[in-house]
Amino acid sequence: MAWVYWVRLYESKFQAGCLVKRMENDWWIYGYQSPREIEVFRSRKGRYGVRFVP
């Protein structure tokens, strides 16, 4: 199981959470396979990011 990290980090957990919801809902619209697991993580500097398992 290898995590794939989204390129951008966000200032708030809310912003990262919005990306997670969009990823969960948009995969089927564009014909991609949905990730098995998506989560918000916090970096050492306090910013938030998104990672997923394809």
Automatic annotation (TrEMBL):
It comes from the Bacteria. This is Uncharacterized protein.
